[in-house]
Design goal:
There is one protein chain. By secondary structure, this protein is α/β, with parallel strands linked by helices. It has four domains: 108 residues, Oxidized Rhodanese, domain 1, CATH 3.40.250; 138 residues, Oxidized Rhodanese, domain 1 (3-Layer(aba) Sandwich), CATH 3.40.250.10; 97 residues, Oxidized Rhodanese, domain 1 (3-Layer(aba) Sandwich); 112 residues, Rhodanese-like domain (Oxidized Rhodanese, domain 1). It is built from 22 helices and 23 strands. Strands 1, 2, 3, 4, 5 and 14 form a six-stranded mixed β-sheet that branches. A five-stranded parallel β-sheet has the order 6-10-9-7-8. It has a five-stranded parallel β-sheet with strand order 11-16-15-12-13. α14 links the parallel β12 and β13. The radius of gyration is 25 Å and the shape is globular. The N terminus is likely disordered.
């Protein structure tokens, strides 16, 4: 299937055999391989370079991940048991303007049956790359018990946590300072100006600890540098106590520290062949319909909000290396990294992307001529206008005893944290199953209540999601398949309900479908978290051998 061969809308998308897809993934041309199952299902068994874009969220995510409408795209699901999920997604993509969409014949099951490797987990290429880096560079590491002994002795060292601030706040190593991955070389000389200070880099598990420590080593930082073996999980498994709720982050570099960081980044650029590019060239690239050019801003969110290149997507450098498939789904795309004029963070990010196998990576350090402000909307596409019920009306209905059924389409983790009292949980792509389960559990559930509240007729069903956007998409789906069903969307979603003082309850009961919408991190498991940590760490270590068997990854050695 070539990029120039459009698939007529309304007809089944053409099928691609496992052997043909295997060849396509190695031919050097652009290709977007997209798995449209929910993330939890995806995490059990998937192709190495598949980006997970669930059908439930397709309209919200696909434009950012696959911006070129005529790029070759192959969709996959689990196989026969998924009831044509990939074909459903193909038809939706045709409606969104994508013209060269195929499906993997037989899905992931057929790929595996053909003798090709499949993987569990998420962000597998990046996770496997972290293990590759540790093996290739022999990145130094310290176990949690040794770091704790250093702390007890009063040794001179600093712990830099390479995760985003939200993860750091959730749990952190005592005394650790938040300094996300791409910020390490940029800020380290402010945090450890004395070369006699040992630097220890941690994350939750392994990848960002390894990449972060090796970033400092690759940059020639004179300090002793170590990765904390197994991160906060290793700390927990060693019986040590983590901090929670801390908000200590590394400051930006002063003039002297920045000069040192720039010099080290320049040497990294020379050694690893990192290319710089000016804004005029990037504009020409973006205007070229034959190639995908992704413009990614690797700075902090605050810097991005204060002004960024028009059209640039925020992709903090450490996370871009850690989870490349969450930012770019088109293999072979040209990547342009935007930064402050010094280019330190973009350079350090680029040198890892080059080693990950991305062959066309550039650093843009020009200031934007007319910067955009703030964060872009969740989707560039208009969200359907559907009938809604506001918070006050719904509360009045509940207080008056006319409560409709509420189905919350948030992630299972968000639902577990807080939802409207009595709400059910479901998945947008499985609304037919949700309605069937509701009818079985409560035969009268989908009959509109009699009466009115605040002058508004009451619906039988109210759909909710955190901001209401996903619920609006689901209501639009139902209007086509169940036009007689009285459905309303909670205006503003659960966020608006909570902001207005509406009560929330926690827990994950009243589920209408399988709870496999997201991959749960080891810390997310209410019980058996330590076992989940051990299994996760073993999984990461085992990826090196699995990648070698698969043969599709092209990690570069320097």
């Amino acid at each position: 299937m070539s990029a120039a061969a459009p698939t007529p809308a309304g007809r089944p998308a053409p099928a691609v055999s496992p052997a043909a897809l295997h060849a396509m993934l190695q031919d050097g041309a652009e290709i977007a391989l997209v798995d449209v199952r929910e993330e939890g299902a995806f995490s059990r068994n998937h192709l190495l370079f598949a980006a997970c874009v669930p059908l439930s969220h397709l309209e919200l995510r696909i434009d950012a991940l696959v911006p070129r409408r005529d790029v070759r795209m192959v969709l996959t699901d689990g196989g026969a048991g998924d009831a044509g999920l990939a074909q459903r997604a193909a038809q939706r993509l045709h409606g969104l303007g994508y013209t060269s969409v195929a499906v993997l014949d037989g899905g992931t099951a057929a790929w595996q049956a053909a003798g090709y490797e499949t993987f569990s987990g998420v962000n597998v290429p990046s996770k496997a790359f972290g293990e590759f880096v540790e093996h290739w560079y022999e990145t130094p590491r310290l176990p949690a018990t040794e770091v704790e002994a250093m702390r007890q002795r009063g040794d001179r060292f600093v712990i830099l946590d390479s995760r985003p601030l939200a993860e750091y706040r959730r749990m952190s190593i005592p005394g650790g300072i938040d300094c996300p991955g791409a910020e390490l070389v940029y800020r380290v000389h402010e945090m450890a100006p004395d070369p006699d200070t040992t630097i220890i880099v941690n994350c939750a598990g392994r990848t960002r600890s390894i990449i972060g420590a090796q970033s400092l080593i690759n940059a020639g930082v004179p300090n002793k540098v170590y990765a904390l073996k197994d991160g906060t999980m290793g700390w927990t498994l060693a019986g040590l106590t983590l901090d929670h709720g801390r908000d200590t982050h590394a400051p930006p570099p002063g003039d002297e520290a920045l000069a040192r960081a720039r010099a080290r980044a320049a040497e990294v650029a020379r050694r690893f062949g990192v290319q710089r590019v000016d804004g005029a060239t990037v504009q020409r690239w973006q205007d070229d319909p034959r190639r995908t050019t992704m413009l990614l801003d690797v700075r902090t969110e605050a810097e991005y909000r204060d002004g960024h290149w028009p059209g640039a997507r925020h992709a903090p450098g450490g996370q871009l290396v850690q989870a490349t498939d969450e930012y770019v789904a088109t293999r072979g795309a040209r990547l342009v990294l935007a930064d402050a004029p010094d280019g330190v963070r973009a350079t350090m990010t680029a040198h890892w992307l080059i080693q990950l196998g991305w062959s066309d990576v550039h650093v843009l350090v020009d200031a934007p001529p007319a910067p955009e402000l703030g964060m872009p909307p969740a989707t560039a596409r208009p969200v359907p206008v559907v009938p809604a019920i506001d918070v006050a009306t719904l509360r009045a209905a509940i207080d008056g005893g006319y409560a409709p059924v509420v189905v919350d389409l948030a992630s299972s983790l968000a639902f577990r944290k807080g939802h409207l009292p009595g709400a059910y949980w479901g998945v947008r792509a499985r609304m037919a199953d949700c309605l069937g389960a509701l009818t079985t559990a409560r035969p009268d559930a989908l009959r509109a209540p009699q009466g009115a509240a605040a002058g508004q007729a009451l619906p039988a069903l109210v759909l909710a999601s955190p901001d209401g956007v996903l619920a609006r998409l689901a209501a639009h789906d139902l209007a086509a398949t169940h036009p007689a069903l009285p459905v309303r969307v909670l205006a503003g979603g659960t966020d608006a309900w909570s902001a207005a003082g509406g009560p929330l309850e926690s827990g994950l009961d009243r589920t209408l479908t399988d709870v496999d919408d997201v991959w749960w991190k080891p810390y997310d498991h209410a019980g058996g978290a330590e076992r989940a940590m051990k299994e996760y760490l073993d999984w990461e270590v085992g990826l090196v051998a699995q990648i070698e068997r698969d043969g599709l990854a092209r990690f570069r050695r320097f």
